[in-house]
Amino acid sequence: MTVATAFDPNSISLSPGAVRKVRELVSEEENAALKLRVFITGGGCSGFQYGFAFDEEAAEDDTAIQVDGVTVLVDPMSFPYLAGSEVDYAEGLEGSRFIVNNPNASTTCGCGASFSI
Fold first, then answer.
1. Is 109 marked within a binding site?
2. Which residue from 63, 65, 58 is spatially nearest to 76, judged by alpha carbons?
3. Residue 96 labelled as part of a binding site
4. 111: annotated binding-site residue?
């Protein structure tokens, strides 16, 4: 498992809002072992879509990004699509959700949940 801690354009960063929300959700679940997994799947209106889940275990080949006590896991297939991105948390009229500000995306859909390269 690779661990990244400082800003690196070949890594993934977390906004303060995302860190705060992950901490809040982990606290609600009363399970300090939970880590936010960010991944890419095929589909969505632009070709790829972002996925988010909580996971207790990191796979051997995951990249773990640690920020202020919060860990984000990214599998090796998703990492190249997410490198240089920032994971954020937004609350707005369309609801509350994690979002990815991805410099690799050439287009995104209106909801921001899918993208193309």
1. yes
2. 63
3. no
4. yes
